[in-house]
Structures are given as C-alpha cells and as structure tokens.
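Hello Y.,

Per our agreement to keep a running log of every chain we model this quarter, I'm adding this entry. I've kept the format consistent with earlier entries: sequence first, then predicted structure.
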Amino acid sequence: MRTYAYGYPRLGENREFKRLLEGYWQGKVSSDALREGIAELEATRLQTYQAFVDAYPVGEMTLYDPMLDTAIMLGLHPVDPNNLDAYFELARGANALPMTKWFNTNYHYLVSHLTPQTEFRLSWHKPLHAYRKHPKGIPYLIGPYTFLRLSRGLTPEELPALMEPLTHVYGELLSLLKESGAKYVHVDEPAFALDLPTSHLRAIREAYERLGTNAPLIVFTYYDSVDFLPVLYDLPLAGIGLDLVHGKRNLQHIGQFGFPADKILVAGVVDGRNVWKTPLGEVAELVRNLQSRTQAEIWLSNAAPLMHLPVTVEPETKLDPALKERIAFAKERLHELQLLKTLLTTGETEATRAWNAYQHATDHWYSQAVQERVANLRPEDFERALPYAERDKLQRARLNLPLFPTTTIGSFPQTPEVRQMRQAYRTGKISAEEYEQFIQDQIRHVIQVQEELGLDVLVHGEFERTDMVEFFAEKMEGIAFTQQGWLLSYGSRVYRPPLIYGDVARTQPMTVKETAFAQSLTQKPVKGMLTGPVTIVAWSFVREDIPVEQVAFQIGLALQDEVRDLEAAGIPIVQIDEPAYREKAPLKRADWESYFRWAAQAFKLAARAKPETQIHTHMCYSEFSVVLKYIDWMDADVITIEATRSKGEVIEAFEHYNYARQIGPGVFDVHSPVVPSVESILTVMERVIRVIPKERFWVNPDCGLKTRKWEEVIPALRNMVEAARQLRARYGS
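Predicted structure for the entry above:
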C-alpha cells in the first residue's frame, strides 16, 4: 500500500505566489526574480509532499492557470512561455481569454476557443521539463478530454472529431515522457465525472486505447462519480483515481462489481474540498472493505485536488479550540494519508488514536431558536407578496430611472490607504470612531464621484469590507474565520473561506449604517449590497451534520432580517449577489432539479422584500444558457451578469429563453487594467440591444471594481455613462 497526493496549493504558506505575481505586474519584481521565487515555492511544495506521502506529481506549478499552460503546450496560442509579458497578456491583457469557473468550485480558469478546424501541435514540453528537473515525481498533465470539454466553440457533436488529432499530440508527449524514464504519468480527467454523450464516450475509449500504449497512465477523476467505470476498466491504463468522498456511486460500483486486479486503484478517501478531519477508523474500515473486493494495488489519496484547501492549520491561533481540533487543511490531509497508511499496515499507534480524540465540547455551536425558525417555514415564506409584473410597475414609479439606467456592481477601489486603515483598526492602532470617520469620508467621496460621473443608481463603495463573503460571515453567529486560510480564486486573487460550524444567525444589522449614510448624501437611489445565501455556502467550508440546504435557509433568514432593516432605513434597491448560484450546481444534470430548488428557495428567503423594493442579483462567469430556467426561479427583479470577455456571446442564451425581467450585461471587463473605450462598450451594448428590450436593459461593469485603481475606474465609468447617453439618444425614451 502506498500514499499519493496531488493538487497541493501553489499559493504558499505566506502567499508567496500572490506577492511574486503582483510584484512582477507592478514592476517591483524582475522576470528573473519571479522565476527564481516560483522555483523556490515549487521546491517547498515538493519537499512537503516528500515529508508525508510516497508519491506525488511534478509539473503542477503554473504562473497563472494550468488550462492556459495546456493551451500553450498544444499550440493554440503562438506564445513563447518564456516571454512573460506575452504569457500574461493572454491572462489579463486587453484581449485576455475568457474566464469561467472550474467545474463546481470557486477556482476560475482561462478558456480557449476551438473550432472544428483547430490544429494542434506540441509547442511546449512543460511536463517533460518538470520531470527532468524533478525525476522522483510523476509527471502531471490535464487530459485531452477535459481540455476539450472545458474549451468553448465546439458543439457536443463536433468535439469527438477533435479528439483524434489531439490524441496524436498527447501521444507524442507521452512517448517522450516514457523515453525519459517516467514510470507513470498522472493525467487529470475530472470531466469524466460529467454527463457524457455516447459519442464522447466512444472518442475517449479510442483515445485512451492509443494513449495507454504510449506511457503507463494513471487517470484521475474527481468531484463526482464516473458513470462508465467498466469502460475505464477495459482500457490499457496503469491505474485509475476515483473520488470516494463525493463520488459515492464510485464506491457502490466497486462494492457491486469490484475493481480490476491489473490496475492501481488510487482511492480518494480524504476530502480535498472540505476541512473536517477524516475519521480514520471509519475510512480504514472502508479501505479494508475495498481490499476484500479487489486484488488491485491500492494507493491512498485525496479525493480532489488539495488546492481547494488552505495550506495548513498551524498558524491558526485564534480559532475556538473545539473547532481547531476538528479541522484539517492541505498539509494536515497529507498527514492523514500518512496516519491511514500506518493504521492499515502496522495498526493503531498513539498518533492515530489521538487524531480524532477531541478534547472540547461543541454544545455552544447550536441554537434551538434558529433551528425552530427553519423548521417552521411554510411554502408562502419563500415567495414575494406580488408577481414580478405588478412589482415592476411599483418600482418604476418609485425609482423614476431613465432608459438604460447606469450603475456599478458594488465595490470601488480598495486602495493601499483603505487596507492600511482597516489593518490599523483591527490591530488597535486607531479607535473605532477614527475608523468609522475614515469610512464615512470614503463613502462621501465615492458618492460625489458617482454623481459627477452621472451614474443613475449609486453604491456606498464597500470600503469597510475585505471580501464579499468574509464581511458577512464575520458578523454572523455560527461562522468562524481563519487568520491565514487563503485560497486562490484566479491569477493572484485570493480569499479566505469562512468555516460554518454551527447554527447561523444575525445578531445586529450588518450593512445598514454605511448604506443609510450613503443614501443621506444623495437624492439618487443607493443600493444596499448583500451576498446571497448560496454564495456564502458555496464559498465556505460547511458543516456536514445537517443537510446543506438547512444551512442555506438559516443564512437566508438572517439576510431577510437585514433586507427589512435596509427597507426601514429608506433604501429602495437591495442587491443580493449570487455569483456561485450556477457554480455550486452538481456535475450531474440528474441532480440539478433538487439543488436549484433549494438554492432558489434560499435566495427567495433572503429576497422576501416589499413589492416596491427592487431586488437585484449579480452573477459572473456562468454558463447561462443551461441555467436560465433556474435563474428565473429566483424571481429577482434585475440580474446583472458578466458579458465582456465573451464579447457579448453570453447574451445568446437570452435569445432562446423568454426571460421577462430586467438584465444588466457587463459592458466592460473589470479584471483587466485596460480602460475600455466608448466604442468598445457600445459594441457590447449594440449586441445586447438586439436581444434585450430597451426598457429592460441596465448598463454596468462586469463585476465589482475593488481590485482596480481609481485612475482606471473613473475613465472607464465615464466612458460607460457616455455610451449609455449615446444609446438613449439613438433609441429614444
């Protein structure tokens, strides 16, 4: 029995990855220093693997995104990967590749566009370079089917035809790896856990029948079960990695049909997506049961890439002791694999016994009042008092907005001064009164800026917030925060997921003071800004002792209380952001109805406002065409969405679905430092106006402006307002 781990976070224990990239982009770190720093970070990652597990991959490290690296490797972008400026231009330049969520996670990847005529060639030997530099590891690459399936431009019917030429390129690379001495090659194929058409399954079989002869492959699947395990069993693979935590049907299949003795079973038995400690005794019994059903060699592994976990629990000195002793991050998952192997090969030791021997009680985590409030919900508690058509009339009369109303998504630049003052307040260097005055000064400034620019619906700027989930989680009972539990979202962007450990409740208003202050400064409407219950759940590590929908309903009720307080303060519009609404959907379409039912209900609990209060929601980087029906279930009055990197193609989804509510497609990309021209904004808007009636068309950026600089934001918004003015002149009132 061996242990194997993969996907260990590239961020570094002290966010070295983030600092290196941003230092380079700001001109403070040279290209040589960036490469040296990344090499040191990779060496540390590999040393951590070596300290705990028997085998591990090499070549996982990237300067931005593994899917981008794969596209360059396959010759899709004529870029020398050593030319850092050209490389980063694809990631964050004026014509950056589109970005979307990686399966149902909060990681974003860069999407390549393919056509049936796309040609592939091996133009970068990245896995080979990594293996030659670190020959003790197993070379890593993203598999051909996952790469094709997650690219854009191909219909499902067109994809199989591209598998054949792509297989030739992969075969060339795999042969080189075998010739260089690679005993195994790690091939990531998480797309195998999706719903697969028969033609795709046939293409996979044909591809891997050839690729399996080029090199000894261990194909890793994760995030859910694989519906065609018998096909994988028949392929010439050295091993198969299966998620046995979130892929329960994998476990059922092995229990019923076994596993081939001629392949390695890489058993994903420790959770790569949530933080609760593995019950070693239970999992050891599961592995023994596997051993009784197959003669295959078993490797113990994580069930999904460890990049979805923070690096280590070690620096967390402020957590409730009852919570800290019950959680495990990436480094601790490696230790769990080590302990499991010990338990299964040599028996119990003091270390294995101590792992789940908790010393602190958890009674204080729970609230009978919260539990009863959820238990007493009735069907009518999930609905607004009036249907949308009637609400729309009341809201238009109240708001009196022009055609093509302009707004932003919520946040404005978090300057170094804002971050420094927040840190000074948190460390006690300034008083609460001083910090509140500083925040009010920022709000006063941003209201003045928005009025001078001519925006129609204003926001308070969110200067008091660090992260859209963290801010609310810190103000609710039943949720904890780490000090160093950072995850990468995309590029160098990081966030700290909350830990939802108990019953969730709001003890006092969370946003009313700042929002009401902003409204007092202007005659224009100011939006209240909240993060929705589904997104808070999706971007948190969630308790597992009750169904996740019960957690979402608890949060929805807490947010409903906040909405009512905002209404009482005279706020006419409340935006409840749900960027993770699509992201959290299960990979299998058969599971969608039940998920979207409770997700929409959780949102509607939060959004149960008065009919005259306009409820907005924001979503980004989603495949809207397949979820519009479920977005409709949310019953929001206005939805704002990302549209720029897709050049407005996301709007095609609305051509085929009668979405009767108001829509604000993003008209410029906030993730690029490039200031959009009036003409580029009008190009997007003209594309949209052919699909969305002018009476239902809002004008806004793709997302919040938190990460941009003021010198980028002001001209971008000025151009956006000018584009809206030109559109009003063109289409009348």
